[in-house]
Amino acid sequence: xxxxxxxxxxxxxxxxxxxxxxxxxxxxxxxxxxxxxxxxxxxxxxxxxxxxxxxxxxxxxxxxxxxxxxxxxxxxxxxxxxxxxxxxxxxxxxxxxxxxxxxxxxxxxxxxxxxxxxxxxxxxxxxxxxxxxxxxxxxxxxxxxxxxxxxxxxxxxxxxxxxxxxxxxxxxxxxxxxxxxxxxxxxxxxxxxxxxxxxxxxxxxxxxxxxxxxxxxxxxxxxxxxxxxxxxxxxxxxxxxxxxxxxxxxxxxxxxxxxxxxxxxxxxxxxxxxxxxxxxxxxxxxxxxxxxxxxxx
Length: 297
Ligand SMILES: [Zn+2]
Fold this sequence. Notes:
Elements: E1 3-7, E2 11-15, E3 22-27, E4 31-35, H1 41-55, E5 59-63, H2 69-72, E6 82-86, H3 87-90, H4 95-108, E7 124-126, E8 131-135, E9 138-144, E10 153-157, E11 162-166, H5 181-198, E12 202-205, H6 214-237, H7 243-249, H8 253-272
Parallel strand pairs: 4-5, 5-6, 6-7, 11-12
Antiparallel strand pairs: 1-2, 2-3, 3-4, 8-9, 9-10, 10-11
Helix pairs in contact: 5-6, 6-8
Bound molecules: zinc ion.
Zinc ion binds at residues 68, 70-71, 167, 206-207.
């Protein structure tokens, strides 16, 4: 059963027992926003019941940060007024394969879902950075965040100082680079600029604990960049990656070793394709936390 991980008068974060996956529910004066409802039927049902209890006639918006199956698994349990995702996610040609991953999971664990398993029908397609959507007095800003997947995005809820980041900046998993390390680094480098334009303090990752201060999410950003540069260094120099310190930092090595090895293989392919270079005389530096408000626009 999911637990409530964080709550304030407007924000509730439900966390699934599986992979510590977060579902964020936001209530403003004008709407209820549900981001990535997941995982097990009872968990999704509890979120749905909670949403019904706080709605009181408000519009219901669903946001999907990306198309990984664990993030869209609860879609069919909600009847939303509007669904938000990137254009790439809306048009993802792998939709059937993603639904099959849900069916495989449900078959494996003998799970019946009392709602249809469907791929989200997207009404509002985010195709560029900084797209805004206003509903009465609530304003949302969307940013493309490729790297983990090609179709990832982040959403900022204005007035609440809240960024919902999808599968970035987790405190329990290192970057899982399914798409591109180059794009992943670009997305991480963009975050202080997103902050300067929208001003958020709290950031909720797809898995793990919310970062409740600017210092916390900046530290996670530095850790993520350091991990990616360490993989690149290992690939470019042929020196083995220091997995010992990786597993001192992250607690689920039996699962995460597969993600780490997939990262190494992807970054190796990128290196062979010349998508990034490694110059021993000009090594990348992991940024000190940027003085916010002073980043280039
Ligand atoms: Zn995920």
